[in-house]
Design a protein that fits this description.
- Helix content is about 35%, strand content about 15%.
- By secondary structure, it is an alpha/beta fold.
- The chain has a single domain, classed as HUPs (Rossmann fold, 3-Layer(aba) Sandwich), CATH 3.40.50.
- Helix 2 packs antiparallel against helix 7 (about 175-180) and helix 4 runs parallel beside helix 5.
- The longest helix has 13 residues, at about 15-30.
């Protein structure tokens, strides 16, 4: 049986407990051998907003998954620099794991823009897209669907709470909170 590898890419600005719950659910529901977090250097879909420095976002992901069985991180997009395109990362992973079944997790909110992704038809042939659906009545599509448990945590909310001086305890892992505090990230950003 081929290795089954899940991929969760994103800005992770910052990574939060919602990401981790979704990743654990996917790992178990898809019977994955491992799930690889891939923080991007620069999202081509979020060019208007500046993110925390890529090395710090990678450090937060590393801290969040430390000691978590089945979770790994690959810094390929951070090391590559520039806009991060899923097709380039899929080609990289296909080189590392030529025989593996690859499952790329995307939020249901990405479906309307999927046709704009670079070389999306080639991407669909290389990996299986897995849609994380928020509602039971999600629009029809040809991909594997995982129904997300109700998680009301977003990176935007975390950044806004920090900017307002509010607590982010229980929203992010303690080690992530320490990195945010030590580097004074997201201060004054609303």
């Amino acid at each position: 049986m081929p290795m089954r590898i899940g991929i969760m890419g994103g800005t992770f600005d910052p990574i939060h407990n919602g990401h981790l719950l979704l990743a654990r659910d996917a790992l178990e529901a898809l019977d994955l051998h491992k799930l690889v977090f891939i923080p991007n250097y620069l999202s081509p879909h979020k060019l208007a907003r500046s993110a925390a420095p890529a090395p710090l976002r990678a450090a937060m992901v590393r801290a969040a998954i430390e000691g978590e069985q089945g979770f790994e991180m690959d810094e390929v997009e951070i090391l590559r620099g520039g806009p991060s395109y899923t097709i380039d990362t899929a080609l990289h992973l296909r080189t590392l794991y030529p025989e593996a079944d690859l499952f790329y997790l995307i939020g249901e909110d990405n479906l309307p823009e999927l046709h704009t992704w670079r070389r999306v038809d080639e991407l669909r042939c290389m990996i299986q897209l897995v849609v994380i659906a928020r509602a039971a009545d999600s629009p029809p599509h040809p991909y594997i669907t995982l129904h997300q448990r109700r998680i009301d945590i977003s990176a935007t909310e975390v950044r806004q709470r920090i900017a307002k001086g509010q607590s982010i305890r229980y929203l992010v892992p303690d080690k992530v909170r320490e990195i945010i505090e030590n580097h004074q990230l997201y201060r004054g950003i609303i």
